[in-house]
Write a structure and sequence with these properties.
- InterPro entries: Bact_Lucif_Oxidored, CmoO-like, Luciferase-like_dom, Luciferase-like_sf.
- One of its GO terms (cellular component) is cytosol.
- GO terms for molecular function: oxidoreductase activity, acting on paired donors, with incorporation or reduction of molecular oxygen.
- Pfam families: Bac_luciferase.
- This protein has 332 residues and is of the alpha/beta class.
- It has a single domain, classed as TIM Barrel (Alpha-Beta Barrel).
- 45% of the residues lie in helices and 15% in strands.
- The protein has 11 helices and 9 strands.
- The chain has an 8-stranded parallel barrel, surrounded by 8 helices.
- Helix 2 links the parallel strand 2 and strand 3.
- Helix 1 packs parallel to helix 11 and helix 2 runs parallel beside helix 3.
C-alpha cells in the first residue's frame, strides 16, 4: 500500500449469547481500553434502536462512559443518526463532552434513522423529512460548534468555539456528494453495504472541495475484520459474523452466537451464498492473508486514509487478539 494507514475501531455494542446488557457495556469498555493500548486512532460507537441484540441506543451516554474509562484515544459516534435528533441537542451534548474531556471527541453523522420506520416515527421530534434535511442540519452543527461571532440568537451552549470535528457517514453515493461539497471527512460503511463503495469513494475524491477543515479528501473505510493465527481459525470465527448478518435478513434478531463448525448446516442455500459473499467482502484470515486482502482492496477501490474495523467475534479474548493482529497486518 502506498501510504501508512490510520486504524480505528467501531463497536455496535452487541450482546453475546448468554450475556446481559450490563456485560455488553462492560465488554465495550474493555475493548476500548484494549485498542487504546494498541495505539488505535479512534473508537466509535454506533446508534441503533429497537434492536434487542444491541445496546447502542443512547450513544452519547456510551461515549461519555468510554471517555471516562480511557485516557487518550479519540471516542466518537459512528454515528449519530441525525434525523432522530435536533441538531441543537446534539451540539449541546457533544459540546458538553468536549468541555469535560477536551479534544478527544469525534461526531460522525448519518442520514438514516438506524432502525425500522415505525421506530423512527416514534423517535423523531416531528414528522419532518429528516433525510432530506440532513445537509442543512449538518450545516447547523458546524455553526453551533463554530466561532461565537457567527452564532445565531439560539446558541447550543457550551458548544460555541469547541470545533468538534464532524465526519459524514454513508452507505450510498448521496453522502459522498455531501461530504465532498462540504469539504469534510467521509466514512463509507463497507461493513454492511459494500455495493456502492467504489462509486462513492470515487465521487468523494473526485468532487472534493477544500474547506477550512481539510485541504484534500480524507477517506475512511469501515470493514468487517476477523484475524487469527491461521486462515482456518479466522474462517471458523467468522461464522459468528455470518449468523449476525443472516439473523438481520431473517428479521429475527438474536444475540451474537458462538461460531459453528458447519455453517452450511444451519442456513438455507441462499443464506449460505449470501454469507459467503459477505465473507469475501470482509477482512478474514491470518495476518499475511489480511495484508494481501488490504492490498487487493486498494487495487479495486482506490487508496484510503483510515480503516475502521468491526469485529463480530464471540470469544472476547479472541476478539481482542484479532484487533492486535489486524494492527500488525496493517503496519507490516
Amino acid at each position: 500500500m502506498a501510504q501508512a494507514k490510520k486504524l480505528s475501531a467501531l463497536n455496535l455494542a452487541p450482546i453475546r449469547e448468554g450475556h446481559s446488557d450490563k456485560e455488553a457495556i462492560d465488554e465495550l469498555i474493555r475493548l476500548a481500553q484494549h485498542v487504546e493500548d494498541l495505539g488505535y486512532q479512534r473508537y466509535w460507537i454506533a446508534e441503533h434502536h429497537n434492536m434487542p441484540h444491541l445496546v447502542s441506543t443512547a450513544t452519547s451516554l456510551l461515549i461519555q462512559h468510554t471517555l471516562h474509562h480511557t485516557k487518550s484515544i479519540r471516542v466518537g459516534s459512528g454515528g449519530i443518526m441525525l434525523p432522530n435528533h435536533a441538531p441543537l441537542v446534539v451540539a449541546e451534548q457533544f459540546g458538553t463532552l468536549a468541555t469535560i474531556f477536551g479534544d478527544r471527541i469525534d461526531l460522525g453523522l448519518g442520514r438514516a434513522p438506524g432502525t425500522d420506520m415505525m421506530t423512527a416515527s416514534a423517535l423523531r421530534r416531528d414528522q419532518h423529512a429528516g433525510v432530506h434535511q440532513f445537509p442543512d442540519e449538518v450545516e447547523s452543527l458546524r455553526m453551533y460548534f463554530g466561532p461565537s461571532s457567527q452564532q445565531p440568537h439560539v446558541r447550543a451552549y457550551p458548544a460555541p468555539e469547541k470545533e468538534v470535528p464532524l465526519y459524514i457517514l454513508g452507505s450510498s453515493t448521496d453522502s459522498a456528494h455531501l461530504a465532498a461539497r462540504k469539504g469534510l471527512p467521509y466514512v463509507f460503511a463497507g461493513h454492511f453495504a459494500p455495493q456502492q463503495m467504489k462509486e462513492a469513494m470515487d465521487i468523494y475524491k473526485r468532487l472534493f472541495e477544500p474547506s477550512d477543515v481539510l485541504d484534500e479528501p480524507y477517506m475512511m473505510v469501515c470493514l468487517n475484520a476477523i484475524v487469527a493465527d491461521t486462515d482456518e481459525e479466522a474462517q471458523y470465527l467468522a461464522t459468528t459474523q455470518a449468523q449476525v448478518m443472516i439473523s438481520i435478513i431473517r428479521g429475527k434478531l438474536q444475540p451474537v452466537q458462538p461460531p459453528v463448525e458447519d455453517l452450511e448446516a444451519i442456513l438455507t442455500p441462499r443464506e449460505y451464498e449470501l454469507a459467503k459473499t459477505r465473507m469475501q467482502q470482509s477482512l478474514v484470515g491470518s495476518k499475511e492473508t489480511v495484508k494481501k486482502q488490504l492490498e487487493a482492496f486498494e487495487e479495486t477501490y482506490g487508496e484510503f486514509d483510515e480503516l475502521i474495523a468491526v469485529s463480530y467475534i464471540y470469544d472476547e479474548d479472541k476478539q481482542h487478539y484479532s484487533y492486535k493482529l489486524l494492527k500488525e497486518a496493517l503496519e507490516s
